[in-house]
């Protein structure tokens, strides 16, 4: 039993490492994320190309593995253009604000149990806190300041709209994301990431709390601004969003790194809170040595890669949604569903503690869920507007045909002018 306790880190195991071990783990984490961004870019381009019946990167290095290195060198050596109208301090500081919180958020993600590293027994986690999950949420909220400042300091209307979109999107989806964590806290009894992984020894929370997991999966795309929720970078209507005024230089490279690190953090949190963390999946978990030594690092890495592959798969499969659909989903669907689920989980959790209140707890939970869904359906203004628009369309009289030629409401020049070799003769 002592060996099992030694392999599973707790809060008491942190803060006892020598300073040089902490530095070594910090450097290892930095290298993992920095190299992971380069490999993630190649992996995403390669996977999407295979899904679209293309080869993808295949020139720089074997299988195109050096393509990300070539892109990084190119962006580092390109001319750094600084527009004259920008706020110089905030314009240069914004990409850094996007990158640093993502590195800090990953510091509380456990990669494995207690192992022996250079002769010192230490948990494979840089740091853990009694409120580690709240720290992750805080870092995600801080990183959006980089997006907002990048849009505001650029003094461009398109960049400013992209920054405002990002702020509204993060506010909407971070609420639902935080609510999806509440059920995990209720069952784990802690906000520590290492303790949450320890609580999933018997069953993963993705199975036990599947509604919370599904809500988090949706919020993960909204929080990381990935397709289909990449509205802050809507190229169709915002040119390039908040990064319109950033040239393809080192600043642009930092922005891209920040976005990928944000995606990595979302995937790492999903693995930690819902997919058992570094614990081996079934049936590998039946092997006694699966949770000992350095094997857990392999299980964590496999889950992490599969989660990132799922994010890429969604990008290659789904189109971008409209902004009103994005906000309606966050405020009118995810938040009410999360609140109803939390109340149900709390009632069931109370039943587990007090066996005598079983029927009362189950009945209370069912009534709460039905009541919340009824209120949501009653005030679902999106569905009401659709019904009203459909009724108005049926009752509307057919309009008389117009001779004015237009494309999407905008007048276009006559299309029957004579041309000669593509040049109008008029």
TrEMBL record:
Bilayer topology: Multi-pass membrane protein
Predominant subcellular localization, coarse grouping: membrane
Region (Disordered), start-end ranges: 392-426
EC number: 7.1.1.-
Molecular function terms, GO-annotated: NADH dehydrogenase activity; oxidoreductase activity, acting on NAD(P)H, quinone or similar compound as acceptor; quinone binding
Residues that span the membrane, as ranges: 20-43, 89-109, 129-150, 171-191, 203-222, 260-281, 293-314, 326-347, 359-377
A Pfam family this chain is assigned to: NADHdh
Cellular location(s): Cell membrane; Membrane
Summary of subunit composition and partner proteins: NDH-1 is composed of 14 different subunits. Subunits NuoA, H, J, K, L, M, N constitute the membrane sector of the complex.
Family of the protein in this entry: Belongs to the complex I subunit 1 family.
Record-given protein name: NADH-quinone oxidoreductase subunit H
Species in which this protein is naturally found: Thermocatellispora tengchongensis
Gene symbol of the encoding locus: nuoH
């Amino acid at each position: 039993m002592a060996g099992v306790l030694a392999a599973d880190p707790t809060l008491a195991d942190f803060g006892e490492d020598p300073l040089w071990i902490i530095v070594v783990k910090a450097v290892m984490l930095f290298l993992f994320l920095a190299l992971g961004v380069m490999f993630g870019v190649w992996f995403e381009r390669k996977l999407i190309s295979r899904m679209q019946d293309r080869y993808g990167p295949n020139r720089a290095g074997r299988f195109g593995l050096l393509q990300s290195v070539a892109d990084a060198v190119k962006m580092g050596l390109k001319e750094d253009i600084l527009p004259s109208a920008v706020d110089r301090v905030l314009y240069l500081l914004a990409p850094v604000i996007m990158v640093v919180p993502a590195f800090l958020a990953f510091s509380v993600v456990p990669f494995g149990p207690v192992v022996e590293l250079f002769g010192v027994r230490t948990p494979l986690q840089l740091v853990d806190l009694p409120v580690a999950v709240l720290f992750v949420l805080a870092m995600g909220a801080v990183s959006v300041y980089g997006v907002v400042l990048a849009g505001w300091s650029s003094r461009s209307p398109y960049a400013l709209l992209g920054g405002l979109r990002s702020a509204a999107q993060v506010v909407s989806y971070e609420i639902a994301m935080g609510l999806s964590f509440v059920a995990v806290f209720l069952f784990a009894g802690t906000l520590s990431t290492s303790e949450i992984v320890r609580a999933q020894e018997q069953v993963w929370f993705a199975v036990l709390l599947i509604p919370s997991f599904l809500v988090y999966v949706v919020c993960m795309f909204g929080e990381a601004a990935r397709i289909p929720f990449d509205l802050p970078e809507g190229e169709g209507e915002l040119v390039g969003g908040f990064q319109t005024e950033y040239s393809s230089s080192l600043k642009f490279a930092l922005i891209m790194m920040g976005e990928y690190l944000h995606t990595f953090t979302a995937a790492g949190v999903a693995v930690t809170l819902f997919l058992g963390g570094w614990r081996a999946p079934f049936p590998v978990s039946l092997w006694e040595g699966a949770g000992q030594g350095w094997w857990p690092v392999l299980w964590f890495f496999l889950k992490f890669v599969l989660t990132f592959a799922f994010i890429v798969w969604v990008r290659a499969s789904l189109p971008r949604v409209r902004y009103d659909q994005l906000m309606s989903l966050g405020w009118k669907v995810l938040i009410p569903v999360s609140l109803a689920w939390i109340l149900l989980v709390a009632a069931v959790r109370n039943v587990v503690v007090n066996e005598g209140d079983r029927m009362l707890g189950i009945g209370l939970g069912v009534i709460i869920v039905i009541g919340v869904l009824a209120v949501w359906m009653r005030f679902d203004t999106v569905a009401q507007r659709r019904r009203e628009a459909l009724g108005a369309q049926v009752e509307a009289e057919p309009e008389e045909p117009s001779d004015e030629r237009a494309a999407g409401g905008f007048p276009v020049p006559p299309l029957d002018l004579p041309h000669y070799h593509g040049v109008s003769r008029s």
